[in-house]
Design brief:
Blueprint (H helix, E strand, L loop, with lengths): L2 H27 L17 H7 L2 H34 L3 H11 L1 H4 L2 H15 L5 H26 L2 H9 L4 H12 L1 H17 L2 H6 L7 H11 L3 H29 L8
Helix pairs in contact: 2-13, 3-7, 3-10, 7-10, 8-9, 10-13
Length: about 270
């Protein structure tokens, strides 16, 4: 009798994964269609990928997207880790909860509201819309994500680790670099990769704060899709999907490798 719920759960998971991944594989499959449509597969070809890599403007947009994503993820990770340590330093649980609630505002707020707010802010501050406006916006909405990834690791860390390090003669810098940071390293990597993914994937906020002459992949794909069906979009989306899979594999490899290492302090 117990096998039936288990079989039903497995069948349900298969259906859910099929619904999620079928459109992606359908899109990738037709990126190799020589017919130029998504209704009739005429033959196998790499022409759409060749055309994609010969598009200089699109390659510049890809480079812009990667630079924005890496810089925003790196800066937001540093700021987010310091912010999580600052929240954890407060002894009052009420103060911690208040700061955490304020941190979560950008996460739960609609992207349209955030994008419009940044647009008004940059306009009033006289900041020209383009690379820096997009970068600042991505840093702003990525910091709360990093804090949310790092803070649970800090909360579960026993205070005795810090006390033991201080008893062994560690100063504040040694405690931070040799005890706290190694312990919360999985949370730091999770926050970095989450921030990187959100930056690569973001459309709504970027659409508001990008200017003439500067674009990212998400905005460019939206612009191409509005012009009509083009298998260049399929090829580009297929490459982005493969890159995302590689990022997930690297993330799990790093977190498992870090998880096997202990945390300690040497005098």
């Amino acid at each position: 009798m117990e096998r039936y719920p288990s079989r039903f759960a497995n069948l349900f998971l298969i259906i859910i994964f099929f619904i999620l991944y079928a459109p992606i594989f359908y899109l990738i499959f037709y990126s190799f269609n020589s017919g130029g449509t998504m209704s009739n597969f005429s033959g196998f070809t790499f022409d759409w990928y060749k055309e994609l890599f010969h598009d200089t403007r699109l390659l510049i947009i890809v480079l812009n997207t990667l630079v924005i994503a890496l810089l925003s993820a790196l800066i937001s990770t540093v700021v987010g880790v310091l912010g999580a340590i600052g929240i954890r330093a407060f002894r009052s649980r009420q103060t911690q909860n208040t700061l955490l609630s304020l941190n979560n505002v950008l996460i739960v707020s609609p992207d349209v509201i955030i994008g419009a707010s940044f647009l008004i802010l940059f306009t009033m501050a006289g900041i020209q819309l383009g690379f820096y406006s997009v970068l600042l916006s991505h840093i702003a909405f990525s910091i709360p994500i990093v804090v949310l990834m790092v803070l649970p690791k800090l909360m579960e860390m026993s205070p005795t680790l810090v006390d033991a390090a201080r008893d062994l003669g560690a100063n504040q810098w040694n405690v931070l670099t040799k005890v706290i940071l190694p312990y919360i390293a999985p949370g730091i990597f999770a926050g970095f990769f989450m921030a990187l993914t959100y930056s690569l994937d973001d459309f709504a906020v970027t659409f508001f704060v990008t200017g003439n002459g500067f674009s990212t992949l998400s905005v460019e794909i939206y612009s191409l899709a509005r012009r009509g069906i083009s298998l260049n979009i399929n090829a580009l989306s297929a490459i982005m999907f493969v890159v995302t899979i590689l990022m997930v594999i690297i993330y799990y490899y790093l977190t498992q490798r870090i998880g096997t290492k202990g945390v300690g302090f040497r005098r």
